[in-house]
Amino acid sequence: MKPEFDTDKSIYLQIAESIEDDILQKNIEEEAQVPSTNQLAVMYRINPATAAKGINMLVNEGILYKKRGIGMFVSSGAVEKIRSKRRASFYDKYIVPLLDEAANLDISKDEITDMINEVRKK
Amino acid sequence: MAQVDTALETKKICKSYGSIVALEDVNLRFAENGIYGLFGRNGAGKTTLLDIISSRIFADRGTVACFGEDISKHPQIIAENCCYMPEKHYFPARFKVKKLLSYGKMAFSNYDKRYAEQLCLDFTLNADQTYGQLSRGHQSIFRIVLGLAARAAITIFDEPVLGLDAVARDRFYSELIEEYSRNPRLFIISTHFIEESADLFNEAIIIKNGKVIRQAPVEALLSNVFYVSGKSAKVDVFIQNRTVMSCQTVNDLKTAVVKGDLNAETRSPGLRFSPLTIQKLFIHLTNDQSEQEQLR
């Protein structure tokens, strides 16, 4: 879980993304239980309805599912679902800002490619 | 059909003190379960509103309904269901905290004595001190303890964190959420600590010069306003035909607060878009100076 929220984004989205991060990084395995709405609300000092909105978003996407009377669990296949969803937004979220900043700094495409190849070698 | 989940509803409430209008046509609805934040500048009418809905004072015009009953005709409905912790309180200074807390059971039918004792420990409130010996912060804590442990269907706190340090404020926020999760009910809380408390609320109510200017979830308030900044000439083109709440210019650079949905804006070279914080939005909405700038 991330310790604090950023101010530039809706909190329910950050709740959902933070749980997704934990699933992608295997901090929470598939079929394992995730924190409850109330646990999240108390931990972050946020309204339980906000925490529920973030959790419900993941339920609607099939990433979490509810076991009646027990709590919320990670669906099997959740990792793949999150990956394909995030791949779709990778270009807008990471490449576009990268190229914007590169343009500000006058870094050419070749230089960027060199940097990426350099990292890959390590 | 009436909404069954409404705990409190005000209709066209007006209140004046001599020639000063304290409240004008206040229409508000509070659900049975929810935490509502009441924001407003000093003198905006927050305390007057809370005094009226808790039957401490009477409105000149308009009605307050509590669980569907007019409180002027059925005053017992407020006595039975509402715990109001006003900012100005008149607890006897010579009484010890534990004695005052022992009266809780008489005043509030759901009062939980054990919970009150636990809260005293959590907030390091010494129950053997007299009320008069308490510091300003600990007087606030006393009101918090009494208000939470009363477990009233409607709990109203006027400035509960006044004089509290950052640790005690944080403890109050976490205790409020925990208690609300355990025993959902209606909380109405006025505060000047907008930014740090905003995430607690189902809805925020902003009151200005006696009028309610906003009642909506914080996220909804923030979703239809944003900053645009860049070169003055470019910003000016962008803000043509848009509602501008305020503008700031430094040399040839301009930042404007514009109404609209930030997510619907497409990237535009040379212009930067960013969201407002709730505190900044509050300042823009309630600062009379920014309104004058807008008129110019």
Low-confidence stretches of chain A: none
Overall strand count of chain B? 14
Which fold name is given in CATH as the topology of the largest domain in chain A? Arc Repressor Mutant, subunit A
Spatial order of the strands in the main sheet of chain B?
Answer: 6-7-8-3-9-10
Q: Can you give the helix content of chain A as a percent range?
A: 55-70%
* Largest interface: pair, residues per side: A-B, 17 and 17 residues
Compile the SSE list and pairings:
The complex is a heterodimer of chains A (122) and B (296).
Chain A: H1 11-24, H2 37-44, H3 48-60, E1 64-67, E2 71-74, H4 78-104, H5 109-121
Antiparallel strand pairs in A: 1-2
Helix pairs in contact in A: 1-3, 2-3
Chain B: E1 6-17, E2 20-31, E3 34-40, H1 46-53, E4 61-66, E5 69-70, H2 76-81, E6 82-85, H3 97-102, H4 104-107, H5 113-122, H6 136-149, E7 154-158, H7 166-182, E8 186-190, H8 194-197, E9 203-208, E10 211-216, H9 218-222, E11 225-231, H10 232-239, E12 244-250, E13 253-259, E14 271-275, H11 278-286, H12 288-295
Parallel strand pairs in B: 3-8, 3-9, 6-7, 7-8
Antiparallel strand pairs in B: 1-2, 1-4, 4-5, 9-10, 11-13, 11-14, 12-13
Helix pairs in contact in B: 5-6
Please give a quick description of this structure.
The complex is a heterodimer of chains A (122) and B (296). Chain A is mainly α. Chain A has helices at 11-24, 37-44, 48-60, 78-104, 109-121, and strands spanning 64-67, 71-74.
Give an overview in words.
The complex is a heterodimer of chains A (122) and B (296). Chain A has two domains: 11-76, Orthogonal Bundle (Arc Repressor Mutant, subunit A); 79-121. In chain A, 61% of the residues lie in helices and 7% in strands. Chain A contains five helices and two strands; from the N terminus they run H-H-H-E-E-H-H. Chain A has a two-stranded antiparallel sheet. In chain A, helix 1 (11-24) crosses helix 3 (48-60) and helix 2 (37-44) crosses helix 3 (48-60). By secondary structure, chain B is of the alpha/beta class. Chain B folds into two domains: 6-220, Rossmann fold, CATH 3.40.50.300; 223-295, Alpha-Beta Plaits (2-Layer Sandwich). Chain B has helices at residues 46-53, 76-81, 97-102, 104-107, 113-122, 136-149, 166-182, 194-197, 218-222, 232-239, 278-286, 288-295, and strands spanning 6-17, 20-31, 34-40, 61-66, 69-70, 82-85, 154-158, 186-190, 203-208, 211-216, 225-231, 244-250, 253-259, 271-275. In chain B, the strands form three sheets. In chain B, strands 6-7-8-3-9-10 form a six-stranded mixed sheet, with helices on both faces. In chain B, strands 2-1-4-5 form a four-stranded antiparallel sheet, covered by helices on one side. Chain B has a four-stranded antiparallel sheet with strand order 12-13-11-14. Chain B starts with 5 loop residues before the first strand and ends with a helix. Classes of the chains: A mainly alpha (122), B alpha/beta (296). The A-B interface holds A 5, 7-8, 10-12, 38, 41-42, 44-50, 96 and B 35, 170, 173-174, 177-178, 180-181, 199-202, 219, 267, 274-275, 277.
